[in-house]
Amino acid sequence: MPDATKTAAAIEDAIAPPSAAEPVKPAKDEARSLWGDAWRDLRRNPYFLVSSVMIFFLLLISLFPGLFTSASPTVGDLQHHFLGKPELGNVGSEGWLGYDGQGRSVYSRLIHGTRASIIVGVCVTLIVTVIGGLLGMIAGYFGGLTDAIVSRITDIFFGVPFLLGGMVVLNAFTDRSVWVVVFALAFLGWTQLTRVMRGAVITIKQADYVHAAKALGAGTTRILFRHILPNAMAPVIVVATIALGGYISAEATLSYLGLGLSAPTISWGVDISGGVTQIRTAQHILLYPSIMLSLTVLAFIMLGEAVRNALDPKLR
Amino acid sequence: MGRYVARRLLQMIPVFLGTTLLIFLMVYTLPGDPVAGLFGDKTPDPATLAKIRHDHGLDKPVLVQYWDYMTRMLLHFDFGNQIRNGRPVTDVLAAAFPVTLQLTVLAFAIELVFGLGLGIVAGLRAGRLADNAILIFTLLIISVPVFVLGFIVKSVFAFQLGWIEPNVSNDQEWGELIAPAIVLGGLSLAYVARLSRTTMAENLRADYMRTAVAKGLPKRRIIGVHLMRNSLIPVVTFLGTDIGALMGGAVVTESVFNVKGIGGTIYESIVRREGATLVGLVTILVLVYLLTSLLIDLLYAVLDPRIRYA
Amino acid sequence: MTTIDKTATVPVSRGGDHEGPLLEVRDLHVEFHTRDGVAKAVNGVNYSVSAGETLAVLGESGSGKSVTAQAIMGILDMPPGRIPRGEIFFRGQDMLKMSNEERRKIRGRRIAMIFQDALSSLNPVLTVGYQLGEMFRVHQGLSKKAARAKAVELMDKVKIPAASARVDDYPHQFSGGMRQRIMIAMALALEPDLIIADEPTTALDVTVQAQVMDLLAELQREYNMGLILITHDLGVVADVADKIAVMYAGRIVEQAPVHELYKRPAHPYTRGLLDSIPRLDQKGQELYAIKGLPPNLLNVPTGCAFNPRCPKAEDICRTEIPALVPVTERDGGELPGRRSACHFWKETIHG
Fold it and tell me: What is its main location (chain B) (predicted)?
């Protein structure tokens, strides 16, 4: 789509109404909304369709792992120990992706490990969106001293390297459940969305329709939630969706470093960490969780980008 | 300009103190005892424990500890000693930093050259095959977690092809660090490519580009002078803030390739709760981050004359 | 990053062996391929400009006046733009058949363009001196220093105060009127044969508008250039133009020498435009407005494109496209340069 905007401008110049001579009435078919337009765009976007299907399946797997496998992810049969190389042709069997060092089905662990990643990703995203969204809105809308204080605190938390901070927090816990990891990631993760929301609110605050609402006597709450929030949500949703993939990746990275989820919890990161020692002898233990992990991250990033492109035609 | 720099430096002080305090509190108030850890399974003599604690000042209130630590660090460049073996933290850092720095520089160079190169190609061919291929390639790079990318590189180039050693030696040779640097810089490379692609594609449609064509300028000049100057501004910003991120991200890459840099030191000091070492390391990272962002702000004013600092 | 291209500076003979108009557009068609269909922006436009002559092209947004100019200049985005038919003769040579390099050498040097919005049309990160000097460096191979001196000269020429002090300023540091002067200076730099000014004063304050138009007219006389003035403002045109072409939905609907058009329009659309100018002697009366909206170029009305808005439309207007025919006096006497594309031009001009 080369020069789409310039073209659009040229076409607009060619099609658009305003002229000195006459009053302009909006044509009926132009009554479009940002989200309506975005949705029309998304339905035709292959990236969106592919990522939606992927995410649908990931959610299904994490909710009902039993639909996809009947083998236990925790009970190993030591007769398969290390000998259980993948039989990729034999898709129906539980061992088609091989077995790990304790004779457990890699496929079954893959299916049952999905839930941890999805919970971490979704919960961290929800928490940081709520915290970051509120703080960003307050800082952006009220400005002045409020903004200065919120912004400096954000700067302070942003200054701590994300991964290192997560490692320090997690190291304090000996039994690291999913919720501990969620806490550790949210503890430092909220800064990004605070900044995004603050920026969006500051821009929108200056829009004419906000001034108009103020002139009509709308209260602060009404302006914030009826006029500013709906318009500021677009960039926040995009960044949050992409960040969701990032949190899943971060969880796996922490698990790989030995500071993420710990043993009884089944997760791709734990399996990858365990597979590292066998990288030369039994690569499948490392390979399949890595692929699943990457595909999951890919799905969320693709979704976020598709939404961004749909919402902001300038980026195309 | 001078006043702006002064103001920015003043603004940096609370952020610097806040960040170091935050990391200090995280290290020293979260559960876990570095001294008890020294003795492993043995039950230590309470008097010995108390003495070691006292020697390291661990028996004082945490804010007093922070004050002592910061004054010693800022006034005497003394980061304290490690609890485990009494080694000065400055020695530990001096041993670990050079190779990480080397790795970061290499990763940054790769990110800059290839990221920008791919971005320019994609931006000029927006919507065509090359653009889509680069888009998909960068999407994949972004989606694959760094340690997975590390293992892919390691198993393909070290185990299958035998081009590189799986683990980096201690000689700090540039050649050995290329593979880890690619892994470290990969993510940023993808971001740089996408960012420069977007800004180029956007600026291609700017009115002043149409003017440049109407002036009868040759294509090389239109792209090289008029398009580039404008498109590089946001890319420079990203590159600047990324230096600090690269150093922080080295933890994972170094562990995959067994590089003996700050990554290993950070990991060990976290697990062993060597607070002094960890806080010292993070302090340096924070300083790098703050100074590069100041530098970028100033560079921004040079690149974009519309920005003026009061 | 500075690539300096030394272009051979062979002086091209002015005037040359070519007789006739400087620029002649014949049966030009331009269309845009969009997701919603093909937008026919220009549908068979003919016009010509001679040296020293000013042609005003008048029309609403979407009439195709700017697209025609962009096609002449060779700055249409192709794709999605396409020129399926037509010829554009510059000094007798069809520019649409030239190579890209040949066209590039004409751009800026022989035909120059002034854009509407000077702020966005000038590069924000380069000084105005650099952007002016660039013309001399690229087309005449001057050194950086000599080009800068020429830039100061040019800025003096367009009456920018303290030119030598301001040559190293950036576009955003100038006022709107001064910026437009810089655009004019840039177009004039190489003393081209033809200048296309696309709404050069629309973005300016009314007082500044007059100054800028006067300057443009003065310089045009001095260099004996052809000028195509694109505008939607009838007021701007009257003092400057020699002849007018009124465009509607990608076609010329009326052509006339400037004063004749004001006196006796031969097309209902032109009449509507003239009637919608506010006049002091009609104070208190309701202002006339052409009813309806400009046509959607993806779906132009059949017959005369103006028929849905025309007060005089009859059945024939909805079925047959009127040709652009010569307009004559009531007694058949010739009216040189006058043409109208209306089935009922006689009634309109003589009614």
Answer: membrane
- If asked whether residues C184 and C271 sit together in one domain, one would say no
Q: Using the beta-carbon criterion (under 8 Å), do A27 and C293 form an inter-chain contact? A: yes
Chain mean position to CA B40: 34
Query: What CATH number is given to the structural domain containing A74?
Result: 1.10.3720.10
**pLDDT tens digits, one per residue of A240-268:** 988 999 999 999 888 888 888 877 788 88
Q: Which residues contact C120 (CB under 8 A, 6 or more apart)?
A: B206, B207, B208
DSSP secondary structure string for all residues of A123-173: HHHHHHHHHHHHHHHHHHHH-HHHHHHHHHHHHHHHHS-HHHHHHHHHHT-
Helices and strands (H and E) in chain A: how many: 12, 0
- Say whether both C142 and C277 belong to one domain: no
Contacts of B297 (CB under 8 A, 6+ apart): B8
State the smallest CA–CA distance between residue A161 and chain B in angstroms. Answer: 6
What's the structural domain count of chain C? 2
C-alpha to C-alpha distance for B166 and B168, rounded to whole angstroms: 7
Domains of chain B: 93-275+298-303 (1.10.3720.10)
Q: Is residue A101 one of the residues assigned to a domain?
A: yes
- Chain C residues whose C-beta sits inside 8 Å of any chain A C-beta: 32, 34, 39, 41, 60-62, 64, 66-67, 70, 76-77, 79-81, 232-233, 272-273, 276, 289-294, 296-298
pLDDT, mean of residues C216-240: 86
Q: Strand order in C23-34's β-sheet?
A: C37-49, C23-34, C81-90, C93-94
Confidence band (pLDDT; 50, 70, 90) for A93? Answer: low
Which among A115, A124, A97, A130 has a CA at the least distance from the CA of A270?
A: A115
A218–chain B nearest CA distance, Å: 35
ipTM, two decimals, is: 0.84
pLDDT digits (tens, 9 = 90+) for B59-113: 777 788 888 888 887 877 777 777 777 788 888 888 888 888 889 999 999 999 9
Of the candidates C62, C77, C289, which has its C-beta nearest A13's C-beta? Answer: C62
> Is residue B290 within 8 angstroms of chain A, CB to CB?
yes
Q: Which of B125, B225, B228, B229 to mutate to test the interface with C (most CBs of C within 10 A)?
A: B225
- Enclosing domain of residue C56: 23-241
What DSSP designation does C309 have? G
Residue B306: strand, helix, or coil = coil
Of B207, B220, B226, the CB nearest to C120: B207
Domain end marker among C189, C217, C241: C241
Q: What is the predicted pLDDT for the residue at A266?
A: 85
Contact A110, A241 (CB under 8 A): no
Strand partners, C230: C57, C198
Q: What pLDDT, on a 0 to 100 scale, did the predictor assign at position B40?
A: 61
Q: Which letter, b or e, does each residue of B228-266 get, where b requires 16 or more Cβ atoms within 10 Å of its Cβ?
A: bbbbbbbbebbbbebbbbbbbbbbbbbbbbebbbbbbbb
pTM of the predicted structure, to 2 decimals: 0.80
Report DSSP state, residue B217: -
pLDDT of residue C132: 92
Contact B284, B276 (CB under 8 A): no
Q: Nearest-CA distance from A101 to chain C in Å?
A: 56
